[in-house]
Fold this protein.
Amino acid sequence: MSKSKRKPAAFRVEEVEVFVPPATPTPAAAEPVPLPRTRAMPDLRRGLRWGSIFLGALAALVSLIASIWLYDWVVSLIARDDWIGWVAAGLLGLVVLALVMIILREIAGLARLGRLGKIRHEADSAARQNDKELAVDVTARLKRLYARRKDIAWGLERLASHEHDIMDAEELLRLTERTLVAPLDPVARRIVASSAKRVSVVTAVSPGALIDMLFVGAENLRMLRRLSTLYGARPGTLSLFKLARMVVTHIVLTGGIAIGDDVIHQVIGHGLTAKLSARLGEGLFNGALTTRVGIAAIDVCRPLPYIESQRPRFRELVAEVAGIRSA
Amino acid sequence: MPIATFTHAAGDAFRSLGDYATGLVTPTVRLGVTGLARSGKTVFITALVHNLIAGARLPFFDAAAQGRLLRVYLEPQPDDVVPRFEYETHLADLTGAPPNWPESTRRISQLRLTLEYASTRFWKRQLGRERLHIDIVDYPGEWLLDLPLLRLDYAEWSRNALAQSRVASRKKAAKTWHQALASADPAAPADEVLAAKLAQLFKAYLREARSDRYALSTLPPGRFLMPGDLEGSPALTFAPLDAGGEADFARGTLWTMMARRYEAYKAYVVRPFFHHHFARLDRQIVLIDVLAALNGGAEAVNDLERAMTEILECFRTGANSLWSSLFAPRIDRIVLAATKADHLHQQSHDRLEAILARLTGRAMARAEYAGAEMKVLAMAAVRATREGEAKRGGETLPCIIGYPLAGETIGRRTFDGNEEFAIFPGDLPKDPDLALKGWHTEHGEMRFVRFRPPNPVPLPSGGFAPFPNIRLDRAIETLIGDHLA
């Protein structure tokens, strides 16, 4: 940069190629920082994964048999050369098409999920190192991600009106957070609170433990899907499970921090309520669990780190579940 | 002069006690806009008022960004004897066709701005909309140079002024005055004609040293450069004398007459100015035109550093306690702004800020030690350029595009003021110390050109849209943001 050979110069605007740099650079402008992988287990050196080979081979064999069987069957149907044969062929075509589409959508869902994580990570490092280029890139990608969302249209417009302002990396990210992501935060909180509320009530009144379990599981998955859709991941089935795994990993990794925070209150409070009514205590406990999962899911899905806004706190959300609104 | 000092201090204490009582009803922030001549005080105040009144987008001024700023308007100022800041005239200058920078300030003036806002605090909100007064004072920057004189007597001042005028860079400008001085005998009987002649030559030297060719800053007394309404009075008819270290002269000599006038100048000009306008400030923004000093070379930069350090030492800075806020309020937040940041590409703003921080290092350390909050910003209250890139021989240069003022030069090209140019001003050195040494400008590796104001954008509803700016909102947030919480 400072070659100290660059002498001052003046150019007539028509004389040279003067261009205002594009506000949104091409996506490949900044080389992505490799995403650190979070593993719950240390990465042990292992030989060939015989288990995966076994499963993979088995699956391939089964699908081969199935497709041969299907193929034969359809060929035999077509051989009949009447309308049933053609209908069967058409249906098979549809099945294959739908399968391909589902796979594509799952892949897209996974990619979107990965993209959110990457954006967050890069935003974090841009803010830390005051890397303007990376911050501009992150903002551009986020804008593209939300480009068609009606609920963020106002924020997008507000952000666009500051495009030519002079900001450093941290300020740009702060503005992006304020205009694009922060408006989604209260909605996310409400989603978590309503899920937790539902879980609490159902656990408290349901007759059997099995129904509880199923309902808690289903409701948690539903909450995950709604949260990730809200922040722009729109997950399919596979990516939903991947998200669930990420959330669990996140809870495991940050569990130690959270305990210091409010779990002690929770345990004591739970004990007290359980004394009053076992079912009520269980309901509250499940609700609290859902809240904790919800907070972790917000952490995992939110495309920006918390720069200006506050991370939702467990206690606030529990208060929201209980219907106490803070001023 | 201990009694006068004491009475002044007591007067200040009573005044601030009164201010504190008024402040309980409607809080008032006395905003000091400090800066040497041509550092952009008037433009800053005009842009500040215009942005706030017009409800401009100020993304990092929280109260405005969160939509809590309900109404901003001008109100009659509290002091009835001080002229009003001619906001409308200055704005008309900036929005004229063609737009011009406002003329340099010739006298003191004042303005009160009232902000109505919704507080974020629950109890304050219940009381209805909150109000905050902001009192701003504009004055000729030259007068600021007088503040350090309060601590010098005539003999000391004479010695300093002479020593300064004899350094290499000033010698040429001071030549005729030095010749006249050599023939003047301090012990001779007082002679009005001789005194007037010496004062005249001394003034001429100060004017010359301030011109762009030298761009020097420490040139007290400031009233000699911008006399206000005291032109020609005895208090302004004195000059330093060369007594060769001697300070005892009989009555009726030239020396005693000069010394008396110098003291009168301090007592009737400098001290009232200081006590009425600087002793009671709450917040302060110091505007410093670093780029002009860099243009002037090493001597100008060192001079600027000395001037700023001396001036900043005159202010009471530090965290406020209850006692101090009652009787002697201190300035608890200071913004140091390198103005005219639009003369540089934003890539260099970090370096500009580093240079400014280095330049004001001593003054900053002292204020921070006392507990004041400091913030260094590269700022432009009115942004006269846009940014772009120009290709030259395979090299991409980050440029700024605007209309250079007529008469500005870069290399061999002189601008006529009517054409748009893309300017690459050169790279600021990474190491601020190198910039202070000044060899970059002396070797022609940096040249900062001044631009005319941007073309005004008329609004359909009448008036003009607020000008684009650089970091004006950050400055406002630091200065008054906490009062609007």
Remarks:
- Residues 22-36 of chain A have pLDDT under 50 and may be disordered.
- Residues 184-321 of chain A form one domain.
- The interface with chain B takes residues 1-4, 6-13, 16-21, 161-162, 164-166, 168, 171, 174-175, 178, 327 of chain A (CB under 8 Å).
- Chain A is about 70% helix and 0% strand.
